[in-house]
Amino acid sequence: MENKKYVALVTGATGGLGTHICKRLADDGYIVCANYRSQEKAEAWQQQMQQDGYTFHLYHADVSDYDDVGRMITAITQDHGPVDVLVNNAGITRDGAFKKMSKENWDAVIGTNLTSVFNCCSHVINPMLNQTYGRIINISSVNGQRAQFGQVNYAAAKAGMHGITKTLAIETASKGITVNTISPGYVATDMVMAVAPEVRNKIIEGIPVGRMGGTEEIAHLVSFLASPKSGFITGANYAINGGQHVY
Ligand code: CAA
């Protein structure tokens, strides 16, 4: 990277993927702003990160709340300058057969996984346009591309990200901003490990590489797309799923 210290914001930073994305971006020389929702989890996480040799700047916000995100972006901008790299990583699952899916579980997943992308992009896009530089990376899922029993809400949110990525990419391409999606397959995070072992093992049997992905493998791809050298890649989706879904 050049001399400029780029500012990166990772949402849902304290989760399995978020942690490795933060670490990788710090290794790459970014000022890393780590968004979290649960204060208790964030405090334990920060301690662990310090033990691992990392100091991240923690920012609380419920990413499903437009005004809360606005407050967070204002604070980051005051502390470090405008956000150069936004990684929309925050996500939750509320799995269940559709016939039993409550409106509450639909709203929770759409709010945290999809509306959050609008909220965060909305608050960073004008500063990025003004500085004619930005990298937006949306963390979707293989299950936004293919069907997974029990994930109507999650699949809808993750598929919706592609619409945001593609359209925002062409609206901002001439201003030095790239917008891309990464669609990870099954990675050994708490979210995936929460799936019943018999269901999970069956899913893993369907991954041609023969294993789940590593969080650092996803972080490696984030690092690649975040780089100033990746300026000709925009509106793209990168599948990273061990061959589970090829198209
Ligand atoms: N395929 C077909 N039918 C199924 C099924 C499946 N996989 N699972 C359940 N069913 C059937 C049941 O037999 C049952 O049938 P009847 O109504 O005729 O009795 C019906 O569907 C309802 O079953 P359940 O009561 O067990 O359904 P549920 O509401 O409890 O949900 C589930 C089941 C928990 C969603 C389970 O299917 C499951 O765990 N699926 C995996 C979900 C998954 O992969 N989540 C990924 C989380 S990680 C992640 O999302 C990260 C990422 O990006 C990859």
TrEMBL record:
UniProt keyword ATP-binding present: no
Gene3D superfamilies: NAD(P)-binding Rossmann-like Domain
PROSITE patterns: ADH_SHORT
Source taxon at top rank: Bacteria
GO CC annotation terms, alphabetical: cytoplasm
Keyword Oxidoreductase set for record: yes
Domain Ketoreductase: 6-185
Gene Ontology terms: biological process: monocarboxylic acid metabolic process; poly-hydroxybutyrate biosynthetic process
One Pfam family it belongs to: adh_short
Keywords: Oxidoreductase
Family annotation (InterPro entries): Acetoacetyl-CoA_reductase (IPR011283), KR_dom (IPR057326), NAD(P)-bd_dom_sf (IPR036291), Sc_DH/Rdtase_CS (IPR020904), SDR (IPR050259), SDR_fam (IPR002347)
Listed GO MF terms: acetoacetyl-CoA reductase activity
Protein family per UniProt: Belongs to the short-chain dehydrogenases/reductases (SDR) family.
Protein's name in the database: 3-oxoacyl-[acyl-carrier-protein] reductase
Organism of derivation: Taibaiella chishuiensis
Taxonomic lineage from the root: Bacteria, Pseudomonadati, Bacteroidota, Chitinophagia, Chitinophagales
